Amino acid sequence: xxxxxxxxxxxxxxxxxxxxxxxxxxQAKAGEIAxxxxxxxxxxxxxMAPRVNMGKSRAVANKTPSPxxxxxxxxxxxxxxxxxxxxxxxxFAEEARRIxxxxxxxxxxxxxxxxxxxxxxxxxxxxxxRLPDLPRSDA
Length: 139
Fold this sequence. Notes:
With about 140 residues, this protein is an alpha+beta fold. The chain is built from five helices and six strands; from the N terminus they run ββαββααβαβα. It is globular.
């Protein structure tokens, strides 16, 4: 298996796994790769350092992830966001709007927003992603 960073036409970057480079090319050409953020199927490889999975992990790629794997993934998502995005706290919805409408510097942010605020942002075509809560460590 090989992992590629993929970028959609709206500049969202995400990771995807393929059996090989030819599999990526065929799926991209057929419009079978969709951005998990916006659903766009116009994608291309983004610059990256490829990782190739070998041996034992090949069998894991075809199995349903264990609860421990899901917990690790969610924890890693939270770590990445905290390290790479600015915490704007309860002002998330307001700051997301300011960024979207060019009133504030474009950057990654995280914070808190109510369900209603998130829905309003979505209705304004402002890209937001609600992260699942961090799993309890004793779960």
